[in-house]
Specification:
This protein is an alpha/beta fold. The chain contains eleven helices and twelve strands. It folds into two domains: 204 residues, Rossmann fold (3-Layer(aba) Sandwich); 125 residues, Aspartate Aminotransferase, domain 1 (Alpha-Beta Complex).
Length: 422
């Protein structure tokens, strides 16, 4: 009886001790999280707390979208509109619009913002560059949009065109910096051959560039000679080696088919399927994490890809029915990409392997999208050259192609180092 009583007391003591340790660790974690919250400041937060003089007494034109928020998720449109000494006079919307209501490729016309009464000009329609008429009541242009770290994501070219327009108009442009969600260290993929320049790749940078949007602004302005009167408002407390979810920030999806950080991580490679007749998962809850077509055998494709033992990823056979885009309302079969180690995962390398695998398994059904009026295929615009597609068609090994594209990265990495802010 005494032993049972002693055992019960000892058990209670151990439970109490474990709870105390867990509570202490939780308190420490909360305290540390709080310290991180205070330490990290986005460009918009630095602007309004430390550098507001850049805008005071000036008529401000703002290029933004739903990602232009502070850490309390208040949109920059509302933040600036509430400032008595800042005169917000016009808004400019990139692809998907200021409030994010437009689908990919959808034309967004001029309209009046319901909440502020401000004019909203489209930068994804008849013009992608602000016209002199759009800038007639502007003393300074301000840019605040979250990028996703991939060359063919169009917001970085909206920024570049705005820098050109500001230069031509003789007004300054301010870029508010934000993290690269994929870290600011990993650099991967092909460097754009300027013969294939387009709105999904307009400068000779690699597909995964490892830079913040402010760093890209400096690179575009200097290396590619835009020469605008540019100011980048740096973040405070951001570290290059962290993924977005390792910061205290909430992920606000920057476009309708970029709903999560996982989407952004696979995007630099899986989006290559946009240049083919294979669904890249648009119209599903897992865009770019699913690929497929009615003619694919998902089990066969998953086995083929898993045999390659690609770094940090495994593949699972799936069936899905997209509600929009390719094969809308048609049952399709393919694979889901499951990342097992994102630090080892190489999205571009994986994407090329996947396109090649589908091409080789289904040569009679697989197709690259047709060429445009200039004779250039969309796949080539996405990948940034013509030789990757030719290599796939000639059944070259991806290892051989990778050796070639990695040689291109050497010069870029030296150039890139001159423009890093953190």
């Amino acid at each position: 009886m005494l032993k049972k009583k002693y055992f019960a007391i000892l058990t209670m003591a151990l439970i109490f001790s474990s709870l105390s340790i867990a509570w202490a660790e939780s308190e420490k974690s909360n305290k540390d999280k709080g310290m991180v919250d205070k330490k990290l400041k986005l460009g918009v937060e630095v602007l309004l707390t430390e550098q507001k003089k850049l805008l005071q007494g000036k008529r401000v034109g703002l290029i933004t979208n739903p990602t232009g928020v502070n850490q309390e998720l208040t949109n920059i449109v509302d933040l600036l509109n509430d400032e008595d000494d800042i005169k917000l006079t016009a808004l400019y919307g990139p692809e998907h619009g200021v409030r994010g209501s437009a689908q990919a490729g959808e034309y967004v016309e001029f309209y009046i913002d319901d909440k502020t009464g401000l004019p909203v000009y489209s930068l994804y329609g008849q013009t992608r560059k602000p016209t002199p008429e759009m800038l007639k009541n502007i003393d300074v242009l301000l840019f605040d949009i979250q990028d996703v770290g991939t060359r063919f994501y169009t917001y970085i070219y909206t920024m570049a065109y705005a820098m050109e327009a500001a230069k031509e108009k003789g007004i300054p442009i301010i870029v508010l910096d934000r993290p690269n969600p994929l870290t600011g260290t990993a650099v991967e993929g092909t460097v754009l051959d300027m013969k294939y320049a387009s709105f999904v790749g307009n400068y000779a940078i690699p597909l995964r560039h490892g830079m913040t949007i402010g760093e890209l602004a400096q690179l575009f302005n200097s290396k590619f000679k835009i020469d605008a009167d540019l100011t980048v408002v740096k973040m405070k407390g951001w570290k290059r080696d962290v993924y977005y979810d390792e910061t205290p920030l909430q992920f606000v999806f920057p476009s309708p088919n970029m709903p999560t950080l996982d989407t952004a991580i696979v995007y630099p490679g899986i989006a290559l399927f946009e240049g083919t007749n294979i669904s890249e998962g648009r119209g599903t809850t897992k865009p770019f994490e699913l690929i497929g077509a009615p003619f694919i055998d998902g089990t066969e494709l998953a086995q083929q890809l898993n045999t390659l033992k690609l770094s940090g990823v495994i593949f699972r056979p799936v069936s899905f029915t997209p509600t929009t885009s390719k094969f809308a309302n048609q049952l399709s079969h393919g694979v889901q990409i499951h990342i097992t180690d994102r630090k080892k995962f190489q999205p571009f390398d994986t994407g090329v392997h996947m396109v090649k695998a589908v091409h080789d398994l289904y040569p009679d059904q697989f197709q690259f999208q047709a060429a445009n009026r200039a004779g250039i295929l969309f796949f080539d615009q996405l990948v940034g050259n013509g030789w990757i597609r030719q290599g796939i068609e000639e059944r070259r090994s991806v290892r051989d192609m990778k050796n070639q594209w990695e040689k291109e990265l050497y010069d870029f990495k030296k150039t890139r180092s001159q423009y890093l802010l953190y």
